[in-house]
Design brief:
Elements: E1 21-25, H1 30-41, E2 45-50, E3 59-62, H2 68-74, E4 83-86, H3 95-116, E5 122-126, H4 155-170, E6 173-178, E7 182-183, H5 193-206, E8 211-212, H6 217-221, E9 223-224, E10 227-228, H7 229-239, E11 248-251, E12 258-259, H8 260-271, E13 275-276, H9 283-286, H10 291-301, H11 308-311, H12 314-321, H13 332-337, H14 345-358
Length: about 375
């Protein structure tokens, strides 16, 4: 399994080493793979589960968590699990469908662990900016965890309510973390802003085109934020052990904000490309037509042979690059509770692009 190598000295917060046994549901995904790796690094016993089979340095099993009986059978041997990191997710087109399948994933996992006799102490759940209405356009910023819910049902809310009830009935604690724009890399996970930018830049450079923001001018100038996958993994470990995190909801980001208008020229310079002003377009329509260019780069540079249609979730870029309202959440609560890690996003993104080049996920941007 290929993920970006860990970064020494990333965090400031002391984390619990060799503290128990954790099950990471969704360990094939971006968030789950980094969480499983961080727990493994610090000496925990780590079990990972996902529908897709993967090779991993922890104990992985392929289980269909959407089926209650298969979930019970697949997790039957996990009688030692003290912590659950729940990063499993299934995409569906409507809110009603999202609620149905994602609530079932969580419910079936909790019930399977209870049936296995696991002495569960803590569950970490992931949410995001949609809890505040990011997907609807404008929302009050900086968003705080105490802000009221939206009137429209959402699976973030129903999962949290399900978890609160189970925690009260079964005697474990939980923490819900709300990252934004998670950046990192895991094979087979196209919902990744880092790959949207990197693959777009590589194809543009191969075609002799400048680095041009493919969104609106207004979106180019709004404030945005991201959450590094490694920082989120450290926040996950902290949440599972800190008394101040018990039964709480926290925003968690790198701790800074930026405008794409400040970063895009830096991307161009880093990639050795000319810079040009924004040009609104649909990546989802344009980029699938450039599969031949990507295949050429893969062959020339011996890149990881991920099928092009599974490489990048172009709609992720279209949404973010056409979002014309500030997206900022307050991280005061999590810092006051004891999680102090922070990153300079501009520096970190450039570092991550370099890691992707070293790992042959992206082609070299400079001739040697």
């Amino acid at each position: 399994m290929t993920i970006i190598p860990s970064t020494p000295g990333l965090g400031l917060t002391e984390l619990p080493a060799d503290g128990g046994t954790v099950l990471v549901a969704g360990d094939a995904g971006l968030i789950g793979s980094y969480a499983a790796r961080e727990y493994t690094r610090l000496g925990w016993t780590v079990h990972g589960v996902s529908h897709r089979a993967i090779e991993a340095p922890w104990q992985h099993r392929s289980v269909d968590l959407l089926d209650p009986q298969r979930a019970r059978t697949g997790l039957a041997g996990l009688a030692d699990v003290t912590h659950l990191v729940f990063a499993a997710y299934i995409e569906r087109p409507t809110d009603a469908e999202l609620i149905e399948v994602n609530d079932a994933l969580l419910r079936n996992t909790l019930d399977a662990l209870q049936a296995a006799g696991a002495p569960l102490r803590h569950v970490t759940l992931y949410q995001g900016g949609k809890a505040y209405g990011h997907h609807l356009g404008y929302f009050t910023t900086p968003a705080k965890e105490s802000d009221p819910r939206l009137v429209a049902p959402h699976f973030y809310y129903t999962q949290e309510d399900l978890l609160r009830q189970a925690a009260a009935e079964r005697g474990f604690a939980f923490t819900a973390l709300r990252p934004e724009g998670v950046t990192g890399y895991a094979v087979g996970n196209p919902m990744n802003l880092l790959l949207v930018i990197g693959v777009y830049a590589a194809i543009c450079k191969e075609l002799g085109l400048p680095m041009r923001f493919p969104g609106t001018r207004a979106a180019y100038d709004v404030l945005y934020q991201t959450t590094d996958a490694e920082l989120l993994a450290r926040a996950t470990m902290w949440a599972g052990s800190a008394d101040t995190a018990a039964n709480q909801v926290f925003n968690v980001t790198n701790g800074d904000q930026f405008r794409w208008s400040g970063l895009w020229p830096r991307f161009a310079a880093h990639f050795g490309m000319d810079y040009a002003p924004p040009q609104p377009m649909s990546l989802a329509e344009a980029m699938p037509t450039r599969a031949d260019v990507w295949h050429r780069l893969v062959e020339r540079h011996g890149l990881v042979p991920t099928p092009y249609e599974n490489l990048v979730g172009w709609p992720v870029g279209d949404f973010l690059f056409h979002h014309e309202a500030d997206n900022i959440t307050s991280t005061v609560k999590i810092r006051q509770a004891g999680f102090a890690d922070a990153l300079d996003t501009e520096t970190r993104l450039l570092q991550l692009f370099d890691h992707l080049v070293e790992g042959k996920v992206l082609p070299p941007f400079h001739d040697h």
